[in-house]
Amino acid sequence: MQTSRERGISSLERISPESVIEEYLTENSLNDQLIKDRLDPETRVSVVIPTYNETGVITRCLQALNEQSYRAFEVIVVDNGSIDGTVREINDFREQANYPLYVVEESTPGVAVARKKGMDEVLRRVLERRNGEYHHILVVTDADTIPPKEWLEKITRGFNHHLIGGLAGTHEASKEIEEKIYETMGIRNYFNIIPSLIELFEERGIGRIKMSGPNSAFTATSYALGGGIKHEIDSNGNPKLNETNNLGDRIRQCGYRLVPLGCRVIKNRRRELYEILTNCKDSYFPEGFSSSGRFNVIRKDELELLNVACRNVPKETWENYRHKMIYKVIINFIIRPLTLGEIKRSDTQEIFTPEEIQFFLSNHSFLPNDQYLPKVIGNFLFRLETMLSL
Q: What is the pTM of this model?
């Protein structure tokens, strides 16, 4: 006998959302009630935020949620063993929060474990509500983000078709960070060239849409049908960092569409600045990411890290790191889908030259350290800035 998940993969038109969620909760043995309050009948959105030692940044995120134009939402913070007063800071903010704010604990280290705990608790409460309304929206973000006022409103509007299972948003650095880098290094839009590049791919309809932890949303049904967030381990025994995108891929395989959200959140750049300061060889996988699944060396103030980097890191290192960031985006969004046959070379002609595509195809399995990378990325970056009118 087929499960609702198997039936859903063959026909999303005929699935029972209630059955899909029930089966997911049964498979994941979710019997404990972490939040005593029942899900309000009028609440349509749950925002899940994992935290680990986030004093000084979590309040900014919670305050930005206070200012949302859309009001029918709740926030669930999943603390992953903070020892710096993060939970106290959240509880102190609760008095001024104009939305339901809950804190649950997850002792097992890892951002994926924490995200899963919060998302699964939402599903339990959606099912408990049993009012026949299962088009609930699950939103994920990080503690060090600042969403704009229209963020949740755009998310609710984005789910305008029952076959849309996920919304993929981007994230950018603050104006203060970008202005400081431009003043000291002479590089404009240093970090924010990345969301601009991703949005250009989305606008031209090429590449693979990727979901990200700082800014993504799912329906309760698509989340359950896709198997939820999974805590995955790589071949070296370390936790993978792409749990949200992997969920998106599984949801896509079920027949749902993933579409761009068209809304950025501001994201703290502590991790990237740490990598620039230590001249890490492989961007997005910092040396400070421990096997316990925590970024345990980048809890310093963002502006403090920026000032130190601007004083001590030569411009060449800044430029090389930027090239690596752009290279990673091209590989993940364009080259890997190209090698899997998901897109055609002809789809890329508006943005890339044939020589660039061939270069990336020849080097897509590792981060090349050859002399051609700065030249290839530099030429592409020049054209990109022209296309974006930056």
A: 0.90
Output helix, strand, coil percentages for the chain, rounded to the nearest 5: 45, 15, 40
Residue 275 near residue 283, CB atoms below 8 Å: yes
Between CA 285 and CA 383 the distance in angstroms is: 28
Q: What is the 3-state secondary structure (H, E, C) of 338-383?
A: HHCCCCCHHHHCCCCCHHHHHHHHHCCCCCCCCCHHHHHHHHHHHH
Beta-bridged to residue 171, according to DSSP, are 265
Structure tokens at 252: 């896509």
CA-nearest of 95, 94, 101 to 40 is 101
Report residue 236: phi and psi, to 5°: -95, 5
The length of the chain is 390
Which structural domains are found in the chain, ordered by start?
Answer: 1-174+208-268 (3.90.550.10)
- Which residues does 290 contact at the CB level (< 8 Å), separation at least 6? 296
Give me the DSSP letters along 185-241.
H--TTTTTHHHHHHHHHHHHT-S-----TTSEEEEHHHHHHTT-----B-TTSPBPS
- Give the integer Cα–Cα distance in Å for 139 and 77: 12
Q: Are 247 and 227 within 8 A, CB to CB? A: yes
Task: Give pLDDT tens digits along the chain (390 positions).
Answer: 455 555 455 567 778 888 899 999 998 876 677 888 899 989 999 999 999 999 989 999 999 999 999 999 999 999 998 988 999 999 999 999 999 999 999 988 888 999 999 999 999 999 988 766 778 999 999 999 999 999 999 999 999 998 999 999 999 999 999 999 999 999 999 999 999 999 999 988 888 899 999 999 999 999 999 999 998 877 777 677 789 999 999 999 999 999 999 999 999 998 899 889 887 544 444 444 554 555 555 667 899 999 999 999 999 999 989 998 999 899 989 998 888 888 888 889 889 988 888 888 887 655 555 566 778 888 888 888 888 875
